[in-house]
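Input record, target 12 of the design panel.
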């Protein structure tokens, strides 16, 4: 029987790690990507192989760099021919006033959060079209829907991900490839560790569920989306404890 395959970008920790572990626990051959934290990524690979005895490969590289992504996909397609699922998860935040943001900071947020989705989709799609099968799931944010003060570039990048998701879903629906996005609320990962205890409490009080979400909760919705009826495509699925 064909073993299903998935690439998770930004899988060394946080939400990406949870998604990778969830799909490995279901028997997938998982390709793990991150850019700089290769030691952490190797630890995730060891964890998966020791606990789930399923194949796991490292596809290191900058997801926001076209040449790196082309090289990663050449390796992936040589190993497995095609991906069943692509999860575009790699992302960075930038907190600060827009007027203080440098060109380089702007470029880095847009490259990492949005251009990465373009590069990975472009490379993953051709074999999916040949097989008339595939799922693309983009990890977005509720700030892409509503906008966050002092996170203008981040909000713009995630709005871009939402627009790309909706448009690509239409482009690929005739080929039976589903494209959806998960608009996460505040999730308990390193990304939010710079907040003080006071800021964290304030944020928790503003969330109707009264707490941060967990990376495992996002992994569960990604799994459900990968297994949802094929008629569900082009959706931005909010998982935010009722925040928006
Ligand atoms: P995290 O900082 O814990 O993990 C980010 C991962 O992306 C790491 O593995 C990191 O190595 C990787 N990464 C960063 N730049 C990369 C690059 N150029 N190429 C490849 N990998 C790269 O963050 P997280 O909270 O797990 O975030 C994962 C995704 O979820 C991001 O897209 C983020 O925007 C989104 N998100 C997070 C939250 C939250 O509250 N944590 C909320 C909404 C959306």
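The sequence produced for target 12 reads:
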């Amino acid at each position: 029987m064909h073993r299903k395959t998935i690439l998770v970008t930004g899988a060394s920790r946080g939400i990406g790690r949870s998604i990778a572990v969830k799909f490995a626990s279901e028997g997938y051959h998982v390709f793990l990507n991150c850019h700089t934290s290769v030691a952490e990524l190797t630890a995730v690979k060891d964890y998966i192989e020791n606990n789930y005895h399923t194949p796991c490969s490292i596809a290191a590289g900058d997801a926001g760099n076209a040449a790196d992504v082309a090289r990663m996909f050449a390796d992936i397609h040589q190993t497995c021919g095609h991906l069943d699922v692509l999860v575009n998860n790699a992302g960075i935040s930038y907190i600060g006033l827009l007027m203080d943001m440098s060109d380089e900071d702007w470029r880095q947020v847009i490259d990492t959060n949005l251009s990465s989705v373009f590069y990975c989709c472009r490379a993953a799609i051709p074999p999916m079209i040949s097989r008339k099968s595939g799922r693309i799931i983009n990890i977005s944010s509720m700030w892409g829907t509503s906008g966050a003060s002092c996170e203008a570039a981040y909000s713009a990048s995630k709005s871009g991900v939402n627009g790309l998701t909706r448009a690509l879903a239409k482009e690929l629906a005739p080929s039976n490839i589903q494209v959806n996005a998960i608009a996460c609320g505040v999730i308990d990962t390193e990304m939010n560790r710079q907040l003080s205890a006071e800021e964290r409490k304030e944020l928790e009080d503003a969330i109707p569920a009264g707490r941060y979400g967990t990376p495992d909760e996002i992994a569960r919705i990604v799994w459900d989306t990968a297994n949802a009826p094929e008629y569900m495509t082009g959706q931005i699925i909010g998982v935010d404890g009722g925040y928006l």
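The chain has one domain: 5-239.
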